[in-house]
Structure formats: structure tokens, C-alpha cells
Amino acid sequence: MRRTDREETLLTYATEKSIETGEIPLEEGWEKLRENGICVLVDILQGNASDRRPFGNKGYVSLYTISYRMCSNAGLYDHSKALYDRTKDEIEHVLQHYVVPELNKNKYADEGNAILNKFSHHWENHKVFVKWMQQLFRHLDNGYIANSSISTITSVGLKLFFDIVFVQFKAEVRESLLNAIDTERDGINIDQDLLRSCVEVFPVMGLSSKCTTLKTVQSALNTQPDLSVYESDLEISLLKRTSDYYARKSRVWLEDQTTPEYLTRAEMALKAERNRVKRYLHPSTQSKLLCACEQELLQKYKGPLINHDQSGLRSLLAEDRNEDLRRMFNLFRRLADGLSPMALMTKKFVQSEGNKLLQERRDLIHSLKSKGRKLSSNDPDLIDQLMTLHSKMSRLVLELFDNEAQFQRALREAFQEVMNADTTSDDSNVELLVVHTDRILSGKLKLDEEEVENRLEHCIQLFQFVSDKDLYAELYRERLAKRLLSKKYTSIHAEKSMIVKMKTQQGAPFTTKLEGMVNDFTVGKDIDQTWTAHLNKLRAANLLANRTRMDFSVQVLTQGFWPSQKQRDLQLSHEMRDAKSAFNTWYTERHSHRVLSWVYILGDVVVKGNFGGRSYDMTMTTFQAMALLAFACKKEAVAFPEICEHMQIDEPTGKRVLHSLACGKYKLLDKTGHHRTINCKTDLFESNAIFYSKLKRFKVQMSMLDGDFKRKVNVEIQQQRGFGIDATIVRILKSRKR
Fold first, then answer.
1. Are 579 and 552 within 8 A, CB to CB?
2. Rounded to 5, what percent of the chain is helix, strand, coil?
3. CB-side exposure of 232: number of CA atoms within 13 Å?
């Protein structure tokens, strides 16, 4: 019968029964519903009907009216229970006689996904069938079922599918699903919609096996699922199959490929598994599935991959393969302890690179020593190379390793070892770092303000790894004193900036003396300007002797801040004594509670000399100036003891002073005997009448009067450490006594 004819017949029947308002007999009404509703729907779903639309509007309204009228009469003529039972029987009949036989035919078929195709087909049909059964008998859900506390038609339909179809064929469906997934992993395209349809059944079955109040099929699909069936009947097997698959693959990849190639494959595999979950598996599977993959691909082989001789982490770091490094970090960070071996290898790499630089310097020192030469501590190569290494690794940890704490610690520990491993006993990394900082701040490197700041930042980064920070502070203080007193500094701002950086690293007590030195220097400028103004005022009033006409400036230093200097006697010239006396008088009037102690060795004197008719401006120490002035009015040669007696200095000091004037670069004095050494008993000295220099202004250098500067600093450091240890012991004893 055509659909239109069927609809007209149903409409006529429903209309007549509505007009009569009488009872629709159970058998008569059920026959109408079954033949014109249920059977039509089954024929369409089985593909036996040419018309794919089960009912038109008239047909559906008529069928619903008939079923409703059969249940609308209270008492004797209410057929609700009978309709409910027969509806359930019809659903069961369809599953037993149409679905199960056809699935049995394909249960052991060899044609790939035959069982999946049929299972998906019947599942989709069953959803449609249950939907229309619920639509035809919806009034049962709203009335009889709600009042009787029994399962809804949708719940009954899905539960029957679970009991009759799912339980019987789940093993075959699961096996076919897993085979299809492995096929896709091998790079062969599969029907993902088919797999999604089949996988969808498992969560719904878990829900339908326990829930009796499902209104519609769509609500069952949208409701939070019960995953017990999905997990037990599919997910466990999926995870086991996944582990087995990647266990086989990982062994092959490890044998045939380098670490970067292996990790690229692993990354692609993990991405594919995430997409697989997104396309047809339940979202709850993602974390478990990825964990299984990571266990087989990464956890088992993290040691061999990271420590691979030819292509492991060390090689990637050495070759700056940033993309591969980032990939390795992103993959191993997924593991519980995946970054620890990476951090350890990074530490070893940095230590190796740093020790290689130290060894190169040792080899250079040994080579120069064999030639009778010595490598200067002013050589910037080692510190520059260490700075470059630290900058490179710091940037790598920040950009590629997300500044992860384990890598920060590895970098810190590696550089601590390198920075505290001196090349030789006489070649300290601390001293090299101080000298390098001095080169920056003294302007020897010709840097602009921004570059100076960047270099200082690099210096302070290396400084934080130094263990002997007290030694660094003392050496830095000596260098700072020289820069300030000789006025060879880039800028006071740069000096203060470096001190602030050290203060940030070590705290305020560490930089107290350094800040005091800079403050003394700043305040000293004001004192000197005030003194100069006072001096000029006295000169204008003719209140000074003629011999106090020279320019005379004084830098007042606070004794506790500046490096200690041994007090040395020196007989000053009359002009200097007068100037010193004038300053003492003026300063005492302004600061009566302060005592001045003059340190001549730190002073500079500009001496105007005339040699061979050529005038020179010569900068030198006070001791050198006094020695040179001793020859100003003497034409005959003078013996060494006589000069020392005239200057009131001891023999060692006299030797260093006269050596700088007679044996140095600028030979202002002539001497008898060997031209490179001083003989205190036989050598005679006189002014060098034929001295000549291309420079009209120059500085005459002199070796330090304090002898071995490093030994002096080391003695002071050991003494300070001793005080600190004693104080700590006292505090411990007091705390225990309490």
C-alpha cells in the first residue's frame, strides 16, 4: 500500500473512532499500529521499502491518536500496560530476528571491517527505531510509565540492544576496532566515521544498563555517560594493544634512527593519538592513551636517547640544534622524572665546555712559561669566553627549556664548579673577573653607556657563582681605589651601577665600604672645590708665601672604607710642606674632631721638566717627584744612600723609586752599573741631560711599594675569615649554654 493511501485509511479510522468516543479494542488497535506503523518502520530500516520516509504528518498523527485513544479510557478499557509490553516485545523481536542473524553471518568474516560495518549499520537503525517507537507511544512515558516507576521506552530499547546484541558481539567488535586503529597507525586510511559510530555504543551501553529514565535517544547521547562498560570492554584492551604496538615500533626506531629522528617520530605518534581521541574515542581516554604511548616511546628509552654518543643531548647542545632541543624538552617534560637526566646532561655539558676553556688557558700559560714569558691577568679571553658560554646557556634555558628550575640549578652548579676551578695557583678566576670588570669601568674597552651596562650585567652573573666573594670584594676595592684616585673611570654612574648589582646579589653589608669609597670621592670633590676657592682667596690677598703658588688639591678619604696602606715617611719639598700645612690648618678649623693622616704613595704630582731644551709635563707619584727634585740643583752624580737619606726613605722603597726613574720606560736619570738593576752600594745617579720623548705629556709608572699585592690581600682575607669563624663559634657556644 502506498504511503498516501495508508495515511488516508489511518486518518479515516482515527477520525471515526474519535467521533464515536468508544473503546478501541486492544487487538484491533494494535493491528492498526503494528501493520501501519511498526512494520512500515522495520521495512524501511531493513531496506525493503522504496519510500524512505516512514510516516507523513497525517500518518503520524493518526497513529499517535489511535495509541492515545487506546490508553485514554480509565478503568477496564485502559490498554497502557498491554501496549507497553507489546512495544517491548516488538523491539526484542526486531533485534532477535533481524539484527542478530545478520551479525552472526559477519562474525567471522575475513573482509576487513565487515563486522564493524554491520554493527554500525544496525546501531544507527536501532537508534532510529527506538526514536520512532518512543514518538508513537510518547504518552506512555508521560502517563503510565511515570506513574508506574518502570523504564521508559527509550531505556527499554537501549537495554534490549545491550542484552541481546552488545553482550553477544562486543568481543568481535572490540577486536575489529583495535585492528582498524592499528591499521590507521600504520598509515593506512580507514573510515573514521565508522569507528566513531561503533565506539559510541560503549558509553551509551554503560548508561543504558543502569539508567531507566532516558526520555529520548538524543538525551542518552548527550547525558554524562557511565564509562564502566567503555572502560572494561574497550579501553583496557585499547591501552594494552597501544602499548604492544609502540613497544615494537620503538625498538625498530631506536635501532635505525638518531635521537632527533626518533623524537620526531615520537612527537608525531603522540599528536596522532591526540587526534585519534578527538575524532572517534571518548575524551576520557586521552590522558591514559598518551601515558601508555609515553611509557613505551619515552620512559623506557630516555637514558639511551639523552645520552646517545652521536646524537644525544650533548651533541644537540654543541651544535645549537634549537628545534630538536625544544622537541626533546617538550617530550620529556611529560614524564614524571623526565627532565632530571636532561638537566644532569646539561650540567655535564656546561662543565665540560667550561673546563675546556680553563684547560686552553692552562696550555697557553704552560706554552708561554716554556718560552720564558708570562700571561697577563689583563688578558680578557677566558672571562669573555665564559661570559659567552653563560649567555648562550642562559638564553637556551630561558627560551627552549622555559626557565625550568632543574635546568637553572644545573646551570648554576656547573658554573660554580667552573668559576671556582682556577687554571693555576697564581691565576685565579676571581682576579681575572675583577680585572675584566676593571677594564670595563676604566674605559679601556671603549664602550658606550648601554654596552657598559650589558657587560657589567654579564660580570655580575659570573660573580654570583664565585665562592670567594670576600676575596672578590677586596680585589675589587683595590681596583676601585686606583680608578677613583687616578680618575680613570668611565663614569660615577657606572661605578654606582656595579655596586648596586653587587648589593642586590649579596646584601647591603657586602658593599658598605665600596659605597663609602664612592661617597668619599663625590664629597671629596666638594671639599677640594671649597679648598681651592679658599686658596685662591688667600693668594688674592697675598696671605700665602711665594712658594705656595703651585696648584695643590687634596682627596680626603675615610680610613675604614679604603684599602689599608702602610704609613711611609717622606721628606717633602718646602713648597709641598707649606701647602700641606695650609690645608691642615684650614681642614682642622672646619673639622676639629677629625685627624688627617697623609698617604703620599696615593698622591700624583705633575712635574714640569726641561731636558735638552725640550719641556715635558710628567705625571708621577709623590715619591718619584721628591726623588727627581733632589737632582734639580745638582750637577754631580749622587749615590744611592745619599738620595735615601735626603728623602728619609728606607732602602727597599728607594730601590723601587729609583728603578722607575732610571730603568723604566722613561729614563729621566742616568746611573752607573747594570742598566736594569739597582746596586745600593756602588750605583751613582744623575739627571739624564739627553733624555728625549716624542710625548710631551706622559706618566712615569712605578711598581707597588707594598710588594706582593695578592699575598697582602690573601692575608687580610684569612684574617677576616678567622674573625668570622671565631664569632660564629662564640654564638654557637652561647646558644648551647642557654
1. yes
2. 70, 5, 30
3. 7
pTM (predicted TM-score): 0.79
Please report the DSSP string for 673-687 in residue order: S-SSS--TTT-EEEE
Q: How far apart are CA 425 and CA 411, in angstroms?
A: 25
Reading phi first (left if > 0) and then psi (alpha if -120 to 50, else beta), residue 407 is in alpha
Residue with grid cell 494494535, as numbered in its chain? 30
Calculate the dihedral angle through the C-alpha atoms of 123, 128, 131, 137, rounding to the nearest 10 degrees.
Answer: -110
Do the Cβ atoms of 348 and 412 come closer than 8 Å?
no
**Among all chains, which residue has been given the C-alpha cell 736619570?**
669
Report whether 238 contacts 181 (CB < 8 A).
yes
Closest listed residue to residue 37, CA positions, set 71, 65, 69, 73: 65
Q: What single DSSP character describes residue 508?
A: G
Element (H, E) at 8: helix 3-20
Q: Which residue has the cell 677629625?
A: 594
How many of the other CB atoms lie within 10 Å of CB of 241? 19
DSSP symbols for 52-69: -----HHHHHHHHHHHHH
At 669, give phi and psi (nearest 5°).
Answer: -120, 145
d(CA 213, CA 152): 6
Sort residue 443 into left (φ over 0), alpha (ψ -120 to 50) or beta: left
* Contact call for residues 233 and 239 (beta carbons, < 8 A): no
170-192 pLDDT tens trace: 999 999 999 999 999 999 999 99
Residue by residue, DSSP assigns 130-142 as HHHHHHHTHHHII
Collapsing DSSP to helix, strand or coil, 428 comes out as coil
| Grid cell of 359 as nine digits | 684547560
pLDDT digits (tens, 9 = 90+) for 590-620: 888 888 888 888 888 898 888 888 899 999 8
**H/E element, 726:** helix 709-737
**604 contacts 570 by C-beta, under 8 angstroms:** no
